[in-house]
């Protein structure tokens, strides 16, 4: 049995849990690697304001992925950012993070979840479509670099 994945990381158990302050350094690394390029303060902001919907995927004591969500109104959730380490993509980690986040939103009473994704990001779009999101609308010049966004929505 092969105990390594294609990128040479060991295959192992994965835990989805809330972000903790000790995850900060690895989460910043992950954000940079996934081209999020967010201000690191964003992570602190989500931890302080939305701790129940800021999740990480931990494996062997390392952070392999994270999702930042928040309830933007009593009935509406928003997925702000999802990222998986490049060496761990394609293993179902993004799907696990999103599935757990949707379940938490459901428990919080959210009935609709919204997200935006870059027009060229087909991989993420496919994941969201697989998870039951539908295209709500498209916005040109949405991001600072001029790329457009597709806005997706899912009912819970
Ligand atoms: C988008 C991203 C989070 C997906 O995470 P992931 O852990 O690799 O995705 P999963 O392994 O859970 O795959 C879920 C689905 O994504 C799609 N997918 C995954 N890898 C893919 C690939 N190499 N090519 C095309 N689609 C792919 C498939 O639909 C897959 O479902 P399947 O396994 O049933 O075929 C990850 O690629 C990433 O971090 N990208 C950079 C940051 C980013 O773009 N974030 C999204 C911001 S909106």
TrEMBL record:
In Gene Ontology terms, what is one molecular function of this protein? N-acetyltransferase activity
Q: Enumerate the UniProt keywords alphabetically.
A: Transferase
Q: Where is the N-acetyltransferase domain?
A: 14-156
Q: Name one Pfam family in it.
A: Acetyltransf_1
Question: What is this protein called in UniProt?
Answer: Ribosomal-protein-alanine acetyltransferase
């Amino acid at each position: 049995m092969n105990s390594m994945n294609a990128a040479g990381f060991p295959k192992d158990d994965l835990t989805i849990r809330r972000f903790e302050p000790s995850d900060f350094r690895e989460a910043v690394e992950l954000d940079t690697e996934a081209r999020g390029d967010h201000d690191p303060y964003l992570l602190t902001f989500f931890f302080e304001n939305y701790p129940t919907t800021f999740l990480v995927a931990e494996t062997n004591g390392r952070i392999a992925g994270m999702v930042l969500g928040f309830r933007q109104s009593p009935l509406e959730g928003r997925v702000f950012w999802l990222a998986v380490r490049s060496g761990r993509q394609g293993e179902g980690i993004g799907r696990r993070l999103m599935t757990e986040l949707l379940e938490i939103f459901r428990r919080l009473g959210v009935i609709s979840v919204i997200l935006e994704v870059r027009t060229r990001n087909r991989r993420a779009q496919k994941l969201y479509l697989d998870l039951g999101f539908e295209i709500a609308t498209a916005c040109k010049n949405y991001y600072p670099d001029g790329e457009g966004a597709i806005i997706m929505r899912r009912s819970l």
